[in-house]
């Protein structure tokens, strides 16, 4: 899982990223919201992992234009359709998410000290609190690898982002039985996930 999903805050508590939403769960406060970003799916170099970039960047020293050999970062686009999407559309006005960009929020909780993302679960273990439910997403199987993240089960789209740029992408992750036991992990089912804290 992404190392940025759970980091300790210097003021106590914990900070975590809520992928696909511009709000934070109850009992946590928003540090900022912004844009899910990552490496282009067809690029060999660059970073490995998704980031939550703030809405308004603060620039240091920079040179205008692309510098030879520099890495680029791109907004992450949902690669889903009504045929292959387990996601609820309630936070997107009922519209499909396909080819729109994913927002994110950096959240902080002072009453919790750790968080964990559990794949293939919809409920938290006893003694843990639910932050949100979702589905695992990552790059498509024919693209370069990236981290798995737990995308909120009812994600939003960045307003006005329907462009189909196909740069950094989120595809749902499905189980494939064989080396995974077929009785438990039927081929072709989207993998649910849950983010829990305590």
Structural class label: mainly beta
Span between termini: 18 Å
Largest sheet: 11 strands, mixed
**What's the mean pLDDT score?**
86
Q: Based on CA inertia axes, which overall geometry fits? A: globular
Poorly predicted runs: 1-10
Give the topology string: H per helix, E per strand: EEEEEEEEEEE
Number of strands: 11
Strand fraction: 25-35%
Number of helices in the DSSP assignment: 0
Oligomerization status of the protein chains: single chain
The Cα radius of gyration reads 17 Å
Helix amount: under 10%
Short description:
The chain has strands at 7-8, 14-19, 29-38, 51-54, 74-78, 103-109, 115-119, 129-138, 149-152, 168-172, 192-197.
List the helices and strands and how they pair.
Layout: E1 7-8, E2 14-19, E3 29-38, E4 51-54, E5 74-78, E6 103-109, E7 115-119, E8 129-138, E9 149-152, E10 168-172, E11 192-197
Parallel strand pairs: 5-10
Antiparallel strand pairs: 1-2, 2-6, 3-4, 3-5, 3-6, 7-11, 8-9, 8-10, 8-11
